[in-house]
Design goal:
Elements: E1 3-9, H1 16-29, E2 34-41, H2 47-57, E3 62-67, H3 73-83, E4 88-91, H4 100-104, E5 115-120, H5 128-145, E6 157-159, H6 160-164, H7 175-186, E7 190-195, H8 210-229, H9 244-252
Parallel strand pairs: 1-2, 1-4, 2-3, 5-7
Antiparallel strand pairs: 4-6, 5-6
Length: about 250
């Protein structure tokens, strides 16, 4: 399976080089046929220059998509999916908070499931406020949609064919939760795995801001509407061709 890493970056000149290098190292260490699509989301610093230099050194492994103005992490993700050559896609932010080795240690689980969902076990790496906010968010999502997910905003490994068939695509910070709820409630097989994050060394996370929280609220209400009024979970009972879910269900028949 070929892997595409989608790497959104907004003013990450202090972190993007390390994020790219660490990902390339994991490709080599794990013998993974992979590529990195860096989404330069309207950066005003030297992020774009650093990416272009990396491309000149690894033209077969790195590509860039430039946004003239910031479009948000959800839009970056879907731009990456649209242009991905891989069978598997995963988002690793350009802030280098996430160690790619942590998710790719579970790469082979995709032989049995279509989604690998990481959850953070070293919560001390984040502030008390961030952890409290995550707890409340997780409680609301699990209670609303009758699921038992430990985390919905991490570096999830997806089978691309699953993403291609989705009828709706959120462009906000809610996009990961939206994908997971729709896929899990439909019946796609998934695995949750423990994951360790790094402490952010430079810059400030864009996830905790009033615009981001407002977008999350809008995304949540949209999903509630689709789930309870449009019955999104039963809109299409077919599973994407080549998915582990489809294969395993067929083998049972």
């Amino acid at each position: 399976m070929v892997v595409t890493i989608i790497m959104p970056a907004l003013n990450e000149e202090a972190n993007i080089l390390f994020a790219i290098d660490n990902t390339l190292k994991v490709f080599k260490d794990c013998n993974i046929d992979g590529e990195i699509i860096v989404i330069n989301d309207g950066s005003k610093d030297k992020t774009g220059e650093i990416i272009k230099k990396q491309i000149s050194q690894h033209p077969d492994k790195i590509r860039i998509i430039n946004h003239n103005v910031p479009q948000g992490i959800g839009a970056c993700f879907w731009d990456g999916v649209k242009n991905a050559k891989g069978d598997i896609v995963c988002m690793l932010p350009g802030d280098n908070e996430n160690d790619p080795w942590e998710i790719f240690r579970y790469y082979k689980l995709l032989e049995h499931v279509d989604i690998v969902i990481p959850f953070i076990f070293n919560k001390e790496a984040r502030s008390l406020f961030r952890n409290a906010l995550s707890f409340v968010y997780r409680f609301i999502i699990n209670s609303t949609f009758a699921v038992y997910l430990n985390y919905t905003n991490g570096t999830v490994l997806y089978r691309k064919s699953l993403l291609k068939e989705l009828d709706y695509r959120s462009n906000s910070f809610f996009f990961q939760t939206d994908i997971l709820i729709r896929a899990v409630k439909k019946g796609y097989l998934f695995a949750e795995v423990p994951y360790k994050i790094n402490k952010r060394k430079d810059g400030v996370s864009k996830a905790i801001s009033f615009p981001s929280l407002f977008q999350v609220m809008k995304g949540y209400l949209h999903l509630v509407r689709d789930f309870y009024l449009k019955n999104a979970k039963n809109s299409n009972l077919r599973f994407s061709k080549g998915s582990a879910t489809a294969t395993r269900r067929q083998n049972k028949q």
